[in-house]
Design goal:
Strand content: 15-25%
Oligomer: single chain
Number of strands: 32
Number of helices: 24
Largest sheet: 7 strands, parallel
Strand order of the largest sheet: 14-15-13-16-17-12-18
Distance between the termini: 45 Å
Shape: globular
Structural class: alpha/beta
Helix content: 25-40%
Length: 806
């Protein structure tokens, strides 16, 4: 018998990040299971709170425990396998129970407490009532006798509101209630159907002929259809709700709600496809992968040059997985890649495909999650969060462009999709396929050491050569009098493409009009008032914008320091490239694709559709255009500023630059026409650029892994990064120093030659202030064993308690 429930309470504080015991009332015992939500009385005031059931036990060491107040769900939101994943994430990524639970569920599903105030009487009884009491009572009555507390607070703006409500509550005039609601829920639509036989309905139509034409039209539609939604019935009958009410009152029809799925894509808009005949190289790779499927769990790294046909390998491998009765997850690093991927996978697998990414509405994401959980679909495609798709027969997880940093979450829990995929594969006996033309150094070293299996594709699908790459020295361009953002070779290549009606992709890893705004008189750079970062200029809407906190300001006419009028924009942004192209190539059609132009729903899809249909000559973009896109008519790629990512404060700067350049150059020449790429740089002698030009990944890896070993960086150690932020610099400094000392004393008390422990800092973080919060960083190089992770978690909880108690 289930008597004591182990629950985790939805509470933001790390101080309550623990499992609580609650008694299960007898009537709830057959209803309750692991993975369900419940409402519980919590804390000294017994405030109601949302909680998740993690398990059951027969007894508890606590003498007095409270009862669960209410069961929310009819079915569990997660099973025991997902619970094991939640527990692993909490330990591995030093997060809370609730944060780990939240990330595996669709957004918007969390319960939110809603407080209501209701009138218990129609009018105030005779007596002495204060002005505030009368105001509050009248406001509730005018709202129908009940109102949400937040709405009442917003309406009245009364400082004594809560006191007034409590006084009226004690006098029996008002009552406060609490309800829990979700942002998203199943969508239901009312459908209409006949309650009489078809023969009777036909007879009624004949009887009403010439008297009630609208009723006849409605009945005729229902005779031909078993049920019709209210909206469709009124539309097709060309009448109004009154006609439907008349039929309902006569008892001839009835309405009933039906749950419908919100679909993010129209299935009929995709052209069905069949398997392509694989090349000899693809056949060999598929044979290798199919053999690995027979011996799970496995992790395989597929290194294939750009345009080698890796997507067709995915499709045929998934087909085999589905024939085995299993399910598959496919992850891509950017939302911008999903339209093309959706087209390929829906074309091949039809309605068996679900889509999971942040570009969908909350309702659409919830319904896709429901379809996966109910087993309606067998393939899930999406960005990083798709790794949590609740399949129960998972056989394959694919990470396309596995090297991409976007697979690492920047918010708590700071998980990596690759690590989560490997954990899930071990749970279900499945295979993880990591795929890239430029694998991460971490993954490739594991493949070379035998932890991963390695298979490689060295030829393009159509046997075309890789793009011809030209590196242009922008210093020489300036010396020759060319002060344009376009080098002469790039301008000539763009002109040639426009003449030949071939398309161009221009890559610049910076949105906006320019990088920063500075005063040429005193040299000051205009900074965000809330963050330690330069403001970026955007020509539309002619403002400076901070890309960290979002604050925007008008560009000052005078320097705020020296009052000079010499305010100028420096650097190059996507807007500026777009403007310059319009001046140099006025007849060319240009489209920009960055976060400023893709904020609307499905905007990625619309932009890429225009480009795919060859309505656009030149596509300008940030990282969104650097990977995964496949357009046969693109024969030229231009990289505007290749040096931009080389000087970043990150030990992976060279790796990311090499990957970025290799990937973006690989967008050219994927069809029958030969591709070219022009890389503009101020450092043409840099060895990373030379290796990217020839796409020599192995040579780059050998150089990079040697440096990592010498400097003791991953994969030869783990990096622990601790950031403390706050408004008071002295408090922030004291906290991070104290935390560092506690870590040294309690966690890393042992050192050895194989895994030395090194401390770097504390120092100001690379971005020293965000949203008025000062930030300090401590980095630790170590071997992050399970014991060390556990001790780190203990230190963090203790320090958070100290900070909260100050």
């Amino acid at each position: 018998m289930k008597e004591i429930a182990q629950v985790v309470v939805n509470h933001p504080s790390y101080m309550v990040d623990k499992i609580f015991h609650y008694a299960v009332p007898e009537p709830m015992k057959p209803l309750l299971d692991i993975g369900m939500r419940v409402i519980v009385p919590f804390g000294q005031g017994n405030h109601t709170a949302e909680a998740y059931v993690l398990g059951f036990q027969q007894s508890t060491e606590f003498k007095r425990i409270k009862d669960i107040a209410e069961v929310v769900d009819k079915k569990p939101l997660f099973d025991e396998n997902m619970l094991a994943l939640i527990q692993w994430m909490r330990t591995t990524y030093l997060t809370t129970w609730y944060e780990a639970i939240r990330i595996v569920l669709p957004p918007g599903i969390t319960l939110k407490k809603q407080e209501y105030v209701s009138c218990l009487v129609q009018k105030l009884p005779a007596g002495k009532w204060s002005e505030a009491q009368v105001t509050v009572f009248d406001a509730i009555q005018q709202n129908g006798g009940q109102i949400a507390l937040l709405s009442l607070m917003f309406t009245l703006q009364l400082k004594t509101l809560r006191t007034t409500i409590k006084t009226l509550e004690k006098k029996g005039i008002l009552a406060q209630t609490v309800d829990f609601v979700t942002t998203v829920k199943e969508k239901t639509v009312n459908f209409v159907s006949l309650t009489i036989t078809i023969e009777e309905a036909v007879a009624m139509c004949q009887k009403l002929e010439g008297k009630a034409a609208a009723q006849v039209r409605m009945l005729e539609i229902l005779i031909d259809n078993e049920s019709v939604s209210v909206a469709d019935l009124i539309l097709f009958a060309d009448t109004g709700h009154q006609t439907l009410r008349t039929l309902l009152n006569k008892g001839w029809v009835s309405t009933s709600p039906k749950t419908i799925m919100r679909e993010p894509f129209e299935l009929s808009s995709y052209t069905p496809t069949t398997h392509f005949d694989p090349t000899q190289e693809q056949k060999a790779v598929l044979k290798f992968l199919n053999e690995k499927l027979l011996h799970p769990p496995q992790t395989v790294l597929l290194r294939g040059v750009t345009g080698s046909g890796k997507t067709e390998v995915y499709l045929q491998l998934i087909d085999q997985v589905l024939r085995n009765g299993k399910q598959a997850i496919v992850m891509v690093p950017e939302i911008s890649l999903t339209p093309q991927m959706i087209g390929r996978f829906v074309g091949r697998f039809g309605e068996r495909v679900a889509v999971v990414h942040s570009g969908l509405s909350l309702g659409e994401r919830f319904d896709q999650w429901q379809k996966i959980r109910q087993g309606v679909v067998s393939v899930a495609i999406g960005a990083r969060s798709a790794v949590f798709a609740p399949f129960d027969q998972l056989g394959l997880l694919i990470l396309d462009e596995e090297h991409e940093y976007s697979y690492k979450s920047e918010n708590s829990p700071r998980y990596h999709a690759r690590e989560v995929a490997e954990f899930r594969a071990k749970q279900c006996g499945g295979m993880v396929l990591l795929s890239s033309a430029t694998p991460s150094v971490d993954s490739y070293v594991k493949a070379k050491n035998g932890r991963y299996s390695l298979i490689e594709m060295t030829k393009r699908y159509n046997d075309n050569a890789l793009p011809t790459v030209e590196i242009v020295d922008m210093r020489a361009e300036i010396a020759n009098g060319n002060k344009s953002i376009f080098s002469e070779p790039l301008k000539q290549e763009i002109a040639l493409n426009i003449k030949n009606k071939e398309q161009v992709i221009l890559f610049l890893n910076r949105r906006g009009f320019s990088a920063f705004i500075t005063c040429r008189s005193c040299g000051i750079t205009l900074m965000c008032p809330h963050c330690h970062i330069a403001m970026s200029y955007h020509s539309r809407p002619n403002k400076m914008i901070c890309h960290y906190c979002g604050v925007n300001q008008k560009v000052p006419k005078l320097c705020p320091t020296c009052e000079s009028t010499h305010i100028r924009h420096f650097g190059v942004g996507t807007e500026q490239v777009e403007q310059a192209l319009g001046e140099i190539f006025p007849t060319a059609t240009v489209l920009r694709m960055d976060t400023d132009t893709t904020g609307g729903k499905m905007s990625h899809k619309h932009i890429l559709q225009c480009f795919e249909q060859e309505q656009i000559d030149i596509l300008i973009g940030t990282q969104m255009v650097s990977k995964g896109l496949d357009f046969p008519n693109v024969t030229l790629v231009g990289v505007m500023a290749a040096d931009m990512s080389l000087g970043v404060d990150d030990y992976r700067a060279d790796e990311r630059t090499f990957q970025l350049l290799t990937q973006v150059c690989g967008r050219a020449g994927r069809g029958d026409l030969h591709g070219r790429a022009v890389i503009q740089t101020y450092q043409p002698e840099h060895d990373v650029l030379a290796l990217a030009k020839t796409q020599d990944y192995v040579a780059f890896y050998q150089k990079e892994i040697h440096l990592r070993k010498m400097l003791y960086y991953p994969p030869y150690c783990h990096l622990v990064v601790l950031i403390v932020s706050g408004r008071d610099e002295e408090v922030v400094r004291e906290t991070i120093v104290e935390t560092g000392l506690m870590i040294k004393q309690q966690v890393f008390f042992q050192k050895n030659e194989k895994f030395p422990v090194l401390y770097l800092g504390p120092l100001p973080a690379p971005v020293a202030k965000i949203k008025n919060q000062l930030r300090f960083r401590l980095m630790i190089k170590c071997n992050a064993t399970a014991e060390i992770r556990e001790n780190l978690h203990t230190v963090l909880v203790e320090m958070r308690k100290k900070v909260q108690n100050k």
